[in-house]
Amino acid sequence: MPRRWYLMALMTAGVVAGGLTAPMAGMGPAHAAVAPAAHPAATVPTAAVRPAQTAATAGRGTGDAAGNPFCQGLGKRYQASSAAWAFCEGPQPHGPARPHAHAPAAGKPVPGAPGNADAASPAEDVSPGGLRSYGQSETSIAASGRFVVEAWNDATGLFSACPSPKAQITGLGFSSDGGKTFTDLKGLPDAGCSKDLYFGDPSVVAYRAGGKTYFYISSLFDNFFREGRSFVALAACQVTGSGGRATLHCGQPVIAGASSQCQTVGSRAHPVRVCSFLDKDYLTIDPARGRLYTAFTEFGLTDAGAIEAGVCDLGTPAGRAGPAGGTPAAPACEHGTGLHKVSKNMLAGQPYLTIQRPDRHGCEYEGAYPAAGTASGNLYVGYEFNWATNTPFLGSGQCFNKPTKNLVAKVPRRCLALRTVSRCAGPAARASVHITSMDAALVPGFFPSSLASDFPRLAVSGRAHAVSMVWNDTRFHPYGDVLLQSFGLRSLRPVQRTPVVLDTPHHGGLTFMPAVRTATAGGLLDVTWYSRDSLTTSNTTVNAALGVSPRAASTPGSNITITSVASDWDHQSFDIVPNFGDYTDNALAATSSKPYVGGTLYVAWSDGRTGVPQPFAAHLPAGR
């Protein structure tokens, strides 16, 4: 989502992709006694917050204009996601990075690549007022059988108003022909859009139960006027009909995460409630138990982020109600306690489960990606430490000498009960790997071109008895490689002595934003990422390493190209930043029985071949 980074980050020190992290009070039922907040509540200056607006007196506005404390710290004390930047800064129009406006936005066709499809319709990128918007990014994808759903950050939402479905910054497309073509469904249903909106950073998973197909789409979900509590919400969507006439019906927002800190500021005549901010949500599903998990960052009122998780009951494999009353069409989600008054102006609650508490020196935790083990029922969460705060752009310098790391945390099944708050204080184990970050790189054509992410993506392989992490790393090449490090499922003991490079051959060009979700039926990994052939080009493709063993000790023999045409990132028009997001995605088709995955891999990315970033998709046989 919009990040006014490039010069702003260099001039002021800022927040990086995906990270509005503030502990937000839970939305669960009120309790007579509330446990202490997961991270200590702190106060913010009252003078910094402007009086609340009302629908009768103002338009949508921005979080920065409203004096939101999270927005005032963004780009100064921490970085955050595209959605966070959209929340704080609104539209940020930009044109081609170079003056050659006549240059093509697409390169030559790539022989042997699978078919590519635009999941959105440019005809829908026009506001109700007749204004064309530019750019979609941060894509996520899921599939089951012939049905496919892709979701993305949609710039049209920045120029549209409730009750139009285009007011939602989370857009989506549906395919009933296996991803060959898509119908742009504009935005998710939201009857309360005059108050809260889907603000992007989407994640999509698929589920088969009772002979029916369901998709779950999560997103940041925040106040129209940038005040009050911050949420993660999800829509439960069901496929109805069959064949080419099948359609997707999505329900109203279900809260899956909520602020755990709020403070009342302003004057007695104009009180304003400001709260912690949730950022970079992502989903994973345990189809064996009908559980849906979300992981995200919560930026507290004064800290640089905690990693948290929530759980939802999806019912039984037969489609009936589960232990918490949830069904596939109506999930029941647990996301912590309600708010409790802890001082004159402060309210606090307790999240469902805190995976990682904030760093006391203000080093940022961000980029949470979960993966579920269907055999054990355990949950694994990967995330990055000291992202963005390792640069002179942000913070006070206390984090300069702290190693940047990617971590994986293990949460046992016993800690994931369907209750308001987990019975566990945190994960049972953690493991980490030191990384060489690229977040100070100036990537041509990537705007803002500073502070690219190194977030880890996870997949669990029961056959290999390992949870695997992939990320981009610059230890070997300045513009990155995709590295693999696996850990034992029980102990989180490293499988490889050193991380394994997955991209080959490497000609010195850009390699970043890898994606992996689940292991194949054979226990192998299909990993995809953005790639460039050399340092002298901004032409970008999506490449893949298919059928990688989680216990691999050497680089695969070859990679393949997913994109049928390369995109020149220097020649793009866009209203949302970063212009190509901070993540890509892939997913194996979901099935209703073990091993719960089919034989088709679906890949999603933001593609610039038309000169405007669009959410593209491709599918191909999975690695065996």
The tally of domains stands at: 1
- How is the main sheet built? 6 strands, antiparallel
Overall mean pLDDT stands at 88
Please tally the β strands and state the result: 36
What does this structure look like?
The protein is mainly beta and 624 residues long. The protein has a single domain (6-621), classed as 6 Propeller (Neuraminidase), CATH 2.120.10. Helices cover 3% and strands 38% of the residues. The strands form 8 sheets. Strands 1, 29, 30, 31, 32 and 33 form a 6-stranded antiparallel β-sheet that branches. Strand 3 and strand 4 (147-154) form a beta hairpin. The protein is globular. The two termini are 35 Å apart. 64% of the residues are buried.
In short, what is this structure?
The protein has 624 residues and is mainly beta.
List the helices and strands and how they pair.
Blueprint: H1 6-12, H2 69-73, H3 82-89, E1 106-109, E2 116-118, E3 136-144, E4 147-154, E5 170-175, E6 183-187, E7 196-209, E8 212-223, E9 231-240, E10 247-250, E11 254-258, E12 261-266, E13 271-275, E14 277-286, E15 291-299, E16 306-313, E17 332-334, E18 340-341, E19 346-348, E20 353-356, E21 365-372, E22 379-385, E23 405-411, E24 429-434, E25 457-461, E26 466-473, E27 481-488, E28 500-501, E29 511-515, E30 525-531, E31 539-548, E32 560-561, E33 565-568, E34 585-590, E35 597-607, E36 614-621
Antiparallel strand pairs: 1-33, 2-36, 3-4, 4-5, 5-6, 7-8, 8-9, 9-10, 9-11, 12-13, 12-19, 14-15, 15-16, 16-17, 16-20, 18-19, 21-22, 22-23, 23-24, 25-26, 26-27, 27-28, 29-30, 30-31, 31-32, 31-33, 34-35, 35-36
